[in-house]
Amino acid sequence: MIHDATLNRTIDVVHHHHLNVVGWNPGPALSVSMGDMPDDGYKTFVCVETVYATAPQQATEEKPSRLAQTICVAKR
């Protein structure tokens, strides 16, 4: 759960069909080089991804591979 005090809300991220969750932020140096983010955008940015980082996904015709996440935003 992410607590956003500035906008008085919580952001709940629920992961489905996953082994791992990766959270990242570009930091100051990378933020400056990203065309779709302001130079100081790293101060208000977080990315939370549902991933298979520690093992390969095994997909077959009978059992396809899938990843999903549900994001819920609620005012506090």
Provide a brief overview of the structure.
It is built from one helix and five strands, in the order E-E-E-H-E-E. It is mainly β and 76 residues long.
Give a quick set of tags describing it:
76 residues, two-stranded antiparallel ribbon, mainly beta, glucose-6-phosphate 1-epimerase activity, 9% helix, 38% strand, Gal_mutarotase_sf_dom, three-stranded antiparallel sheet, isomerase, EC 5.1.3.15
Description:
The two termini are 13 Å apart. The chain has one helix at 27-33, and strands at 2-4, 9-16, 20-24, 47-51, 68-75. The model has no long low-confidence stretch (mean pLDDT 92). The chain has one domain (2-75). By secondary structure, it is mainly beta. The strands form two sheets. The chain has a three-stranded antiparallel sheet, with no helix packed on it.
**Cα distance spanning the termini:** 13 Å
SSE order in H/E notation?
A: EEEHEE
Number of β-strand runs: 5
Query: Major beta sheet, specifics?
Result: 3 strands, antiparallel
Please give the share of residues in helix.
Answer: under 10%
Given the C-alpha coordinates, what overall shape results?
flat
Give the SSE map.
Layout lengths: L1 E3 L4 E8 L3 E5 L2 H7 L13 E5 L16 E8 L1
Antiparallel strand pairs: 1-2, 2-5, 3-4
